[in-house]
């Protein structure tokens, strides 16, 4: 039994030795199979992601400054700044303001005009409002408009411009006899509809709240 035991032990040692010698070959075969299967697999690119934005709670305050021909509500995270220029146009009266949102690097331009002064006929002001919106038609995918009629007796039109444009949402309000106000939401950033969509949607709610609470004095 002692001799047979030695023979068995010897055989086991030889078998283990041969197995260890074959391990590198086995690993190489597994690696080749893995590489071949990887080459044949379909690569799916992950969609581009954007930073998560923490939006503030919606609370509103009243803009009702003496001497201004209008009043409205605006969010507490925005600030009203008196303006003298709207893009390349100089202010023709002291009632032009910007509603700025520093957190979002954006603002709502509000330009007021008195109907009947400086050739500001209602027809001309309406045409100007439409023309300023249509200036984006080259880069716009779609331009939609909807009539505005609020509980405060305010009338006008709201424009939504789809595409990579700087001012995607605009509006005008008028009483058709004396007052005319135009608003435009503008981002001080390279227009990118996908990346700006969440912020734009958030601020459009504020823009529509401004409209729904707007009153002429």
- The CATH topology label of the largest domain is Protein Transport Mog1p, Chain A
CATH class of the largest domain: Alpha Beta
Give the class from helix and strand content and strand pairing.
Answer: alpha+beta
Ranges with pLDDT <50 over ≥5 residues?
1-10
In short:
With about 220 residues, the chain is of the alpha+beta class.
Structure description:
The protein has 2 domains: 1-44; 60-216, Protein Transport Mog1p, Chain A (3-Layer(aba) Sandwich), CATH 3.40.1000. Helix content is 34%, strand content 31%. The protein has helices at 2-40, 122-134, 193-213; strands at residues 60-63, 70-75, 79-82, 85-86, 89-90, 97-101, 106-114, 140-149, 155-163, 169-174, 179-187, 215-216. Strands 3-6-7-11-10-9-8 form a 7-stranded antiparallel sheet, sandwiched between helices.
Task: Give the tags.
single chain; 217 residues; alpha+beta; Protein Transport Mog1p, Chain A; 2 domains; seven-stranded antiparallel β-sheet; three-stranded antiparallel β-sheet; 12 strands; disordered N terminus
């Amino acid at each position: 039994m002692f001799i047979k035991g030695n023979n068995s032990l010897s055989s086991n040692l030889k078998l283990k030795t041969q197995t260890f010698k074959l391990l590198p070959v086995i690993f190489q075969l597994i690696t080749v199979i893995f590489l071949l299967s990887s080459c044949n697999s379909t690569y799916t690119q992950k969609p581009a992601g954007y930073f998560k934005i923490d939006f503030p709670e919606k609370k509103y305050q009243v803009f009702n400054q003496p001497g201004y021909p209008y009043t409205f509500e605006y969010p507490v995270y925005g600030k009203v700044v008196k303006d003298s220029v709207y893009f390349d146009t100089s202010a023709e009266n002291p009632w032009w303001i910007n509603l700025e949102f520093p957190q979002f690097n954006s603002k709502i331009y509000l330009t007021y005009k008195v109907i009947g002064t400086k050739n500001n006929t209602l027809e001309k002001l309406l045409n100007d409002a439409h023309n300023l919106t249509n200036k984006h038609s080259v880069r716009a995918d779609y331009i939609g408009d909807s009539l505005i009629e609020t509980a405060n007796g305010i009338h006008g039109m709201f424009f939504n411009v789809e595409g990579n444009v700087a001012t995607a949402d605009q509006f005008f309000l008028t009483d058709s006899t004396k007052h005319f106000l135009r608003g435009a939401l503008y981002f001080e950033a390279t227009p990118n509809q996908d990346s700006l969509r969440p912020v734009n949607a958030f601020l459009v709610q504020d823009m529509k709240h401004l409209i729904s609470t707007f009153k002429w004095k």
